[in-house]
Amino acid sequence: MEVNDYFRLSRRIIDQLAPKISPKYRPFVLNAAGAGAWDLAITDLVGALSEEDVVITTAEKDALRELMEYLREPLTYLEQIRTSD
């Protein structure tokens, strides 16, 4: 993945999934994204989805996996996220 693809995918997946997490975590994710700290926004989003047991699609989980692998972050929390399909 090229860096521009990473930025585009990060923006798209945050726009898609941030509304699904609670107001407890949403400001952290959106503020980090707004500041261009995509690495922090993505890792916080994955953590929130996992902790709050939010169900997402397989495609959304695959996109998060791609981003987490790009960042070389552990997939522990990502693996705990359930999918709906």
Tell me about this structure:
It is a single chain. The model has no long low-confidence stretch (mean pLDDT 94). Helix content is 66%, strand content 0%. It has one domain (3-79). It has five helices and no strands. The protein is mostly helical.
Mean pLDDT: 94
- Give me the count of strands: 0
Number of domains: 1
Radius of gyration, in Å, reads 11 Å
Judged by helices, strands and strand pairing, the structural class is: mainly alpha
Unreliable runs: none
Largest sheet: none
Strand content: under 5%
Shape: globular
Cα(first) to Cα(last) distance is: 26 Å
**N to C succession of SSEs:** HHHHH
User: With helices defined by DSSP (H or I, 4 residues minimum), what is the helix count?
Assistant: 5
What percent of the residues sit in helical stretches (DSSP H or I)?
55-70%
